[in-house]
Amino acid sequence: MTNTKKRIPTNHIVGFVLSLVMTLVAAWAAIGSDLPVKWVIIGIMILALLQAGVQLFMFMHVTEAESGNGHIPWNMMFHGFALAGILVAGSLFTMSFGFDHNHNHDDGGGNHQQQEQQEEHSGH
After folding, report:
1. Distance CA 36, CA 44 (A)
2. Quick check: 35 and 29 in contact, CB under 8 A?
3. How confident is the model at residue 11 (pLDDT cuts 50, 70, 90)?
4. What is the reported pTM?
5. Mind listing the pLDDT tens digit for each residue in 34-43?
6. I need a labelling partner for 19 at 20 to 30 A (CA). Which of 53, 84, 109, 112 fits?
7. Residues 6+ apart with CB under 8 A from 102
8. How far is Cα 110 from Cα 103, in angstroms, rounded to an integer?
């Protein structure tokens, strides 16, 4: 006969409760505490790192051994972080350098207007 006893997933319950507690502490720090903004931000960042660790070890099975098809969780995490880094770097680059902030679309974009303004102020 097979073992039909239901086990209580204590790791999942502990991870869920820890995540809830850290989320509530971060919300309290942001909304209801009298701490300086600098310390609130530092505290929330520390809680975010701790919560990411809880998620990885309690729910995402980082400690599991290599699976049959050759994927190691650390390998997949590295590729995920690399992809996230590429996306963030590309987004920052595009937002910083890839957008023309001059919304005027006539005659090459606004040099004419700047020259007119300079002429008005110089009195010519």
Report:
1. 12
2. yes
3. confident
4. 0.55
5. 999 999 999 9
6. 84
7. 109, 110
8. 8
Work out the burial of residue 44: count CB atoms within 10 Å of its CB; fewer than 13 is exposed, 13-18 middle, 19 or more buried.
middle
Q: Is 65 left (phi over 0), alpha (psi -120 to 50) or beta?
A: beta
* Conformational region of residue 123, where left means phi above 0, alpha means psi within -120 to 50, and beta covers everything else: left
Mind listing the pLDDT tens digit for each residue in 35-84? 999 999 999 999 999 998 898 888 876 666 655 555 667 777 888 889 99
DSSP 68-93: TTS--HHHHHHHHHHHHHHHHHHHHH
How is 20-68 classified by DSSP, letter by letter? HHHHHHHHHHHHT--S-HHHHHHHHHHHHHHHHHHIIIIIS-TTSPPPT
